Amino acid sequence: MGLPTVTFHTLVESGKMIFFLLYFFFCLIKDFLSHYLTHLFSTRAIDYISPPRGKSALTYFLYADGVLIFCRASPKNLRAVHSAFELYGSLSGRVFNWEKSNIYFGKRISPTKIRDLLSICGMK
Length: 124
Prior knowledge:
- By secondary structure, the protein is mostly helical.
- Helix content is 50%, strand content 6%.
- The longest helix has 27 residues.
């Protein structure tokens, strides 16, 4: 008994092609975000947190629908991160919800600076 023959026509008729194309598009856009963040860190558009001597810097981590970005607390960095997600949203059609997002600051960042940084991307 052989495997069933699957043609382009049967994929389109069954709706599986649409799902496949949407998934493929999502993967391309997610890959774009990864490469774009790498570019921003490598060109120092975003300043990474200095790692211990002899260790690699952890700059960002993508997982499922989440993103963790590790960078210095500065207006320049937050504007670059904000613009990266705005670009991602315009390409993917997905809107980045800043109200459901969190930014964690180090102990040495003053409340005034935290408030100023959060206002850059419209967070409270």
